[in-house]
Protein backbone atom coordinates (compact mmCIF):
# COMPACT_ATOMS: atom_id res chain seq x y z
CA UNK A 1 0.00 0.00 0.00
CA UNK A 2 1.36 3.41 -0.95
CA UNK A 3 0.86 6.37 1.38
CA UNK A 4 1.09 10.02 0.31
CA UNK A 5 1.92 12.69 2.87
CA UNK A 6 3.86 15.90 3.53
CA UNK A 7 6.99 15.20 5.51
CA UNK A 8 9.98 16.93 7.04
CA UNK A 9 13.21 15.00 7.53
CA UNK A 10 14.14 14.95 11.23
CA UNK A 11 16.97 12.41 10.93
CA UNK A 12 19.01 10.94 8.11
CA UNK A 13 21.72 8.30 8.48
CA UNK A 14 23.70 6.34 5.92
CA UNK A 15 22.52 2.77 5.56
CA UNK A 16 24.86 1.51 2.83
CA UNK A 17 27.07 2.91 0.06
CA UNK A 18 23.99 4.11 -1.75
CA UNK A 19 21.05 4.09 0.68
CA UNK A 20 19.89 6.09 3.67
CA UNK A 21 17.52 5.51 6.54
CA UNK A 22 15.50 8.70 6.81
CA UNK A 23 13.05 9.55 9.56
CA UNK A 24 10.29 11.82 8.33
CA UNK A 25 7.82 13.57 10.56
CA UNK A 26 4.78 13.47 8.33
CA UNK A 27 1.65 15.56 8.78
CA UNK A 28 -0.97 12.79 8.61
CA UNK A 29 1.14 9.72 9.40
CA UNK A 30 3.32 10.97 12.24
CA UNK A 31 6.91 9.89 12.61
CA UNK A 32 7.85 7.36 9.94
CA UNK A 33 11.30 5.85 9.39
CA UNK A 34 11.87 4.85 5.77
CA UNK A 35 14.65 3.36 3.73
CA UNK A 36 15.58 5.60 0.80
CA UNK A 37 17.18 3.13 -1.58
CA UNK A 38 19.72 4.62 -3.96
CA UNK A 39 19.37 8.10 -2.41
CA UNK A 40 23.14 8.60 -2.49
CA UNK A 41 23.55 7.53 -6.12
CA UNK A 42 24.42 10.27 -8.59
CA UNK A 43 21.20 9.75 -10.48
CA UNK A 44 19.05 9.34 -7.36
CA UNK A 45 15.33 9.52 -7.98
CA UNK A 46 15.13 11.73 -4.86
CA UNK A 47 17.42 14.38 -6.35
CA UNK A 48 20.43 13.37 -4.20
CA UNK A 49 20.89 12.43 -0.54
CA UNK A 50 18.03 13.57 1.68
CA UNK A 51 19.31 16.13 4.18
CA UNK A 52 17.90 16.96 7.59
CA UNK A 53 15.00 19.49 7.38
CA UNK A 54 14.30 18.57 3.75
CA UNK A 55 10.60 19.14 3.37
CA UNK A 56 8.22 17.98 0.69
CA UNK A 57 5.70 15.49 -0.64
CA UNK A 58 6.57 11.92 0.22
CA UNK A 59 5.20 8.61 -1.03
CA UNK A 60 6.16 5.48 0.85
CA UNK A 61 5.14 1.86 0.88
CA UNK A 62 4.16 0.71 4.30
CA UNK A 63 5.25 -2.86 4.82
CA UNK A 64 3.05 -3.63 7.79
CA UNK A 65 4.90 -1.35 10.22
CA UNK A 66 7.00 -4.13 11.74
CA UNK A 67 9.82 -3.34 9.34
CA UNK A 68 11.07 -0.18 7.66
CA UNK A 69 8.78 1.42 5.12
CA UNK A 70 10.34 2.12 1.70
CA UNK A 71 10.45 5.64 0.32
CA UNK A 72 9.06 5.58 -3.23
CA UNK A 73 9.01 9.31 -4.04
CA UNK A 74 10.25 12.56 -2.53
CA UNK A 75 9.39 15.87 -4.13
CA UNK A 76 10.92 18.83 -2.24
CA UNK A 77 8.67 21.85 -1.74
CA UNK A 78 10.42 25.21 -1.91
CA UNK A 79 9.76 28.19 0.28
CA UNK A 80 9.31 26.84 3.82
CA UNK A 81 12.95 26.46 4.85
CA UNK A 82 15.74 28.82 3.80
CA UNK A 83 18.66 26.35 3.89
CA UNK A 84 21.52 28.82 3.17
CA UNK A 85 20.45 31.06 6.10
CA UNK A 86 19.92 28.09 8.42
CA UNK A 87 23.28 26.49 7.68
CA UNK A 88 25.11 29.81 8.17
CA UNK A 89 23.59 30.56 11.58
CA UNK A 90 24.88 28.02 14.09
CA UNK A 91 22.50 29.00 16.89
CA UNK A 92 19.44 28.80 14.62
CA UNK A 93 20.66 25.48 13.21
CA UNK A 94 21.29 24.02 16.67
CA UNK A 95 17.84 25.15 17.87
CA UNK A 96 16.23 23.38 14.88
CA UNK A 97 18.37 20.27 15.46
CA UNK A 98 17.22 20.20 19.10
CA UNK A 99 13.55 20.52 18.04
CA UNK A 100 13.99 17.65 15.53
CA UNK A 101 15.85 15.53 18.11
CA UNK A 102 13.05 15.98 20.66
CA UNK A 103 10.33 15.03 18.16
CA UNK A 104 12.36 11.95 17.22
CA UNK A 105 12.90 10.98 20.87
CA UNK A 106 9.42 11.70 22.26
CA UNK A 107 6.90 10.94 19.51
CA UNK A 108 6.02 7.31 18.71
CA UNK A 109 6.19 6.01 15.14
CA UNK A 110 2.88 6.21 13.24
CA UNK A 111 1.28 8.41 15.90
CA UNK A 112 -0.12 11.40 13.96
CA UNK A 113 0.22 14.92 15.40
CA UNK A 114 -0.73 17.37 12.61
CA UNK A 115 -0.71 20.35 15.01
CA UNK A 116 2.80 19.49 16.16
CA UNK A 117 3.89 19.02 12.54
CA UNK A 118 2.63 22.53 11.72
CA UNK A 119 4.42 23.94 14.79
CA UNK A 120 7.72 22.26 13.86
CA UNK A 121 7.54 23.49 10.27
CA UNK A 122 6.68 27.02 11.42
CA UNK A 123 9.53 26.97 13.97
CA UNK A 124 12.09 25.89 11.35
CA UNK A 125 10.67 28.38 8.84
CA UNK A 126 10.98 31.27 11.32
CA UNK A 127 14.47 30.21 12.45
CA UNK A 128 15.69 30.14 8.84
CA UNK A 129 14.72 33.71 7.95
CA UNK A 130 17.28 36.45 7.30
CA UNK A 131 18.37 38.16 10.52
CA UNK A 132 17.81 41.88 10.80
CA UNK A 133 19.24 42.32 14.31
CA UNK A 134 21.13 40.61 17.12
CA UNK A 135 17.83 40.27 18.95
CA UNK A 136 16.81 37.47 16.60
CA UNK A 137 18.51 34.72 18.61
CA UNK A 138 16.46 35.70 21.65
CA UNK A 139 13.33 35.30 19.51
CA UNK A 140 14.48 31.87 18.29
CA UNK A 141 14.99 30.78 21.91
CA UNK A 142 11.51 32.08 22.85
CA UNK A 143 10.00 30.20 19.87
CA UNK A 144 11.94 27.06 20.84
CA UNK A 145 10.43 27.19 24.36
CA UNK A 146 6.93 27.57 22.92
CA UNK A 147 7.59 24.68 20.52
CA UNK A 148 8.74 22.41 23.37
CA UNK A 149 5.59 23.25 25.35
CA UNK A 150 3.46 22.35 22.28
CA UNK A 151 5.42 19.09 21.94
CA UNK A 152 4.97 18.16 25.62
CA UNK A 153 1.27 19.03 25.47
CA UNK A 154 0.75 16.98 22.29
CA UNK A 155 2.29 13.86 23.84
CA UNK A 156 0.33 14.39 27.07
CA UNK A 157 3.34 15.13 29.26
CA UNK A 158 3.22 18.91 29.67
CA UNK A 159 4.14 19.87 33.24
CA UNK A 160 1.55 21.73 35.34
CA UNK A 161 2.48 25.39 34.96
CA UNK A 162 -0.54 27.31 36.22
CA UNK A 163 -1.02 26.03 39.78
CA UNK A 164 0.89 24.33 42.59
CA UNK A 165 0.78 20.60 41.79
CA UNK A 166 0.62 19.77 45.50
CA UNK A 167 -1.98 22.15 47.02
CA UNK A 168 -3.65 23.21 43.73
CA UNK A 169 -3.38 26.92 44.59
CA UNK A 170 -3.45 28.90 41.39
CA UNK A 171 -0.09 30.47 40.44
CA UNK A 172 -0.01 34.17 41.12
CA UNK A 173 2.82 36.43 39.98
CA UNK A 174 2.86 37.85 43.52
CA UNK A 175 3.99 34.49 44.96
CA UNK A 176 7.11 35.32 47.01
CA UNK A 177 8.82 32.08 45.95
CA UNK A 178 8.03 29.61 43.16
CA UNK A 179 9.67 26.23 42.56
CA UNK A 180 9.63 23.58 39.86
CA UNK A 181 9.84 19.86 40.58
CA UNK A 182 10.45 17.15 37.97
CA UNK A 183 9.03 14.52 40.33
CA UNK A 184 5.85 16.54 40.88
CA UNK A 185 5.78 17.44 37.15
CA UNK A 186 5.16 21.12 37.64
CA UNK A 187 5.12 24.22 39.80
CA UNK A 188 5.34 24.04 43.59
CA UNK A 189 4.52 26.92 45.94
CA UNK A 190 6.57 28.07 48.92
CA UNK A 191 4.32 26.32 51.46
CA UNK A 192 4.68 22.95 49.70
CA UNK A 193 8.30 23.05 48.55
CA UNK A 194 9.67 21.29 51.67
CA UNK A 195 8.15 17.98 50.52
CA UNK A 196 9.95 18.04 47.15
CA UNK A 197 13.70 17.55 47.55
CA UNK A 198 14.31 17.76 43.79
CA UNK A 199 12.71 21.21 43.45
CA UNK A 200 14.52 24.10 41.80
CA UNK A 201 13.75 27.69 42.73
CA UNK A 202 12.59 29.82 39.80
CA UNK A 203 13.26 33.49 39.37
CA UNK A 204 10.08 35.59 39.54
CA UNK A 205 10.35 36.33 35.81
CA UNK A 206 10.87 32.67 34.88
CA UNK A 207 7.86 31.59 36.94
CA UNK A 208 5.70 34.19 35.16
CA UNK A 209 6.95 33.11 31.71
CA UNK A 210 6.42 29.42 32.44
CA UNK A 211 2.83 30.04 33.51
CA UNK A 212 2.05 32.41 30.63
CA UNK A 213 3.91 31.70 27.39
CA UNK A 214 2.70 35.00 25.88
CA UNK A 215 5.30 36.72 28.10
CA UNK A 216 8.17 34.82 26.44
CA UNK A 217 8.27 37.14 23.43
CA UNK A 218 9.34 40.10 25.58
CA UNK A 219 11.41 38.20 28.17
CA UNK A 220 15.14 38.83 28.64
CA UNK A 221 17.78 36.44 27.33
CA UNK A 222 18.61 35.37 30.91
CA UNK A 223 15.00 34.58 31.74
CA UNK A 224 14.63 32.58 28.53
CA UNK A 225 17.76 30.58 29.31
CA UNK A 226 16.45 29.93 32.82
CA UNK A 227 13.10 28.69 31.44
CA UNK A 228 14.83 26.55 28.78
CA UNK A 229 17.07 25.06 31.48
CA UNK A 230 13.98 24.03 33.48
CA UNK A 231 12.38 22.41 30.42
CA UNK A 232 15.60 20.59 29.46
CA UNK A 233 15.99 19.24 33.02
CA UNK A 234 12.38 18.03 32.86
CA UNK A 235 12.90 16.38 29.44
CA UNK A 236 16.24 14.89 30.59
CA UNK A 237 14.40 13.30 33.51
CA UNK A 238 11.82 11.82 31.10
CA UNK A 239 14.40 10.50 28.62
CA UNK A 240 16.87 9.32 31.26
CA UNK A 241 19.61 11.30 29.46
CA UNK A 242 20.11 14.87 28.30
CA UNK A 243 19.09 15.65 24.71
CA UNK A 244 22.28 15.65 22.65
CA UNK A 245 21.78 19.19 21.30
CA UNK A 246 20.77 20.80 24.62
CA UNK A 247 24.26 21.95 25.62
CA UNK A 248 24.60 23.91 22.38
CA UNK A 249 21.53 25.95 23.33
CA UNK A 250 22.17 26.40 27.06
CA UNK A 251 25.95 27.05 26.94
CA UNK A 252 25.94 30.08 24.68
ZN1 LIG B 1 1.37 24.41 47.18
Entry keywords:
single chain, 252 residues, alpha+beta, OB fold (Dihydrolipoamide Acetyltransferase, E2P), de novo design (two linked rop proteins), 5-stranded mixed beta barrel, 3-stranded antiparallel sheet, 7 helices, binds zinc ion
What does this structure look like?
By secondary structure, the chain is of the alpha+beta class. It has 2 domains: 75 residues, Nucleic acid-binding proteins (OB fold (Dihydrolipoamide Acetyltransferase, E2P)), CATH 2.40.50; 152 residues, de novo design (two linked rop proteins) (Up-down Bundle), CATH 1.20.1440. It contains 7 helices and 8 strands, in the order βββββααααβββααα. Strands 1-2-3-5-4 form a 5-stranded mixed beta barrel. It has a 3-stranded antiparallel beta sheet with strand order 7-6-8. β6 and β7 form a beta hairpin. α2 packs parallel to α4 and α4 runs parallel beside α6. It starts with a strand and ends with a helix. The relative contact order is 0.11. The mean pLDDT is 94. Bound molecules: zinc ion (ZN).
Give a brief rundown of this model.
By secondary structure, the chain is an alpha+beta fold. Helix content is 35%, strand content 21%. The chain has helices at residues 83-88, 90-106, 114-127, 136-154, 204-211, 221-239, 246-250, and strands at residues 2-14, 20-26, 30-36, 55-61, 69-76, 178-181, 186-189, 200-202.
Distance between the termini: 47 Å
CA-based shape: elongated
Bound molecules: zinc ion
> CATH homologous superfamily of the largest domain, by name?
Recombination protein O, C-terminal domain
CATH class of the largest domain: Mainly Alpha
Helical residue percent?
Answer: 25-40%
Strand content: 15-25%
Number of strands: 8
- What is the CATH topology descriptor of the largest domain? de novo design (two linked rop proteins)
Largest sheet report? 5 strands, mixed, barrel
Uncertain segments are none
Structural class per helix/strand content? alpha+beta
What is the N-to-C order of secondary-structure elements (H for helix, E for strand)? EEEEEHHHHEEEHHH
Question: Strands of the largest sheet, in order across it?
Answer: 1-2-3-5-4
